[in-house]
Amino acid sequence: MYNVKNITEDIYYVGANDRRISLFEGVYSVPEGVSYNSYLIMDDKTALLDTVDKTVSHQFFENISHVLNGRKLDYLVINHMEPDHCAEIENLIKKYPDIKIVCNAKIQTMLSQFFDFDFKQEQFTIVKEGDKLETGKHTLTFIMAPMVHWPEVMVTYDLTDKILFSADAFGSFGAIDGNIFADEVDFDLRYMNEARRYYTNIVGKYGMQVQSLLKKASAIDIEMICPLHGYVWRKNLDKFIEKYQKWSTYEPEIQSVLIPYASVYGNTQNVAEILAGELAKLGIKDIKMYDVSVTHPSYVLSDIFKYSHIVFAATTYNMGIFVTMENLLNDLSAHNIQNRKVAIIENGSWAPSSGNLMTEIISKWKNTQIIGNRLTVKSTLKNDNLTQLKELAKEIHASMV
Ligand code: FEO
Predict the structure, then answer these.
(1) Which residues line the pocket of ligand 1, CB cutoff 6 A?
(2) Does pTM top 0.90 for this prediction?
(3) Which atom of ligand 1 sits closest to the CA of residue 150?
(4) What one-character-per-residue DSSP string does 268-286 give?
C-alpha cells in the first residue's frame, strides 16, 4: 500500500524507511533506522527528485504510482549518485521510458559506471550552475555542491516555493516516524545526536566544501529544506544551519572535556576515571567518557566534533597504540578533525610508547594544541602520578577560560 506525505500542496514525499538495516554504508550502525527520501512535484510537468536505496524499492514505486495517478513521469532530477539514492534509476526508466533525466555531466558519467543500462543520449538534459527547468508553476534551478558528499553532487532549488532539495546536506540518521517535518518532533532530544553523527561521519571531512555550499545557500531565500535522509525543515532553519556552520568549521559546540580511553585490564580506565573526577571537582560540567573498545568510533568521532577538549588515554600494545584507539585516531585524521585542545595519557608496563605515537598522529591535526605534560603511567596509577594527574586537570581547566 502506498504511504506518501504532502510536503506542500503539490510536492509529495515518496521515500521510505529502513529500520532493519544492519550497517549504513557497511560501517555505521543505525539503531533508529534510516529514511531514503525522494520527492515528487506534481505540476504541469511531473518531476521526481532522486530515487531510493534498493531495499525500499517496492514502497517507492507504489508511492510514485499512487501520486501520479495515471499521469506520466516527465523528469527525473538526479542530485547525487550514491547507491542509497540512485539504486532505482534503471528500474524507474524501464517503468517510465519517456522520462527525461536532468543531471550534471559528472552524474551522467557516473550513471554509466553504476549501470550497464543503455541510456539514450536524447533522454538527458545536462545542467550547469544556475540553469533552470520550468515544470509549469515551479521553476527549478541547480546549484553545484561538489564533495557534499561526492564530487558530482548538486542541489536543486525551487524558486517558486523557496525549497532547497539539499541532497545529503541537512540529513540525519533515523527513520521518519509518521511526522515529516522536523518541527513536529522533539528534534533536539531525539535526533540531534544522530544528525551530528550523520554529518560528521559522512561529510565531516569536507568542511571547506560544505562552507562553500552554505555560502551559496545564504544568498538565496530558503523557506524549506528537503534532504535525502531524515526530516524536512520548514521552521527554525537558522538553528540547524548554525549547527552546520559549526561542524563545517570544526568549531566545538561546548567547552567541556571528552575522554576516550583504551584499557586492557581496567588500569588505564582507572586513570581516566580519576582525571574525570578531578575535572569535575574543578567545576567542569558535561564531561563525557568513552571506552573506545566498546563504543563504535562513529559515536566518539561525532562527540569529538562537539567537545572543545579531548583527553586520549591509551595503553601500549605490541609497542604501538592499543588497536581500538589507533583506529579512532586514524578515523579522526581521515575526517580532517582540527581546532581542538588535547591532552594525552599513556600506559605501559615496561616500555610505554603509545604517548609518542598518539602525539605523532595528533600533531598533524590543524590548529590543535596539546595541553600540559603527557601523563605516563606504568601499569597502575601511583601517588606520584596522582600529583601529575591533578596538575594536568588544572592545566586543562585553565585552558578553558
Ligand atoms: Fe545518502 Fe552520499 O548518500
Answers:
(1) 80, 82, 84-85, 149-150, 168, 228-229
(2) yes
(3) 2
(4) HHHHHHHHHHHHHHTT--S
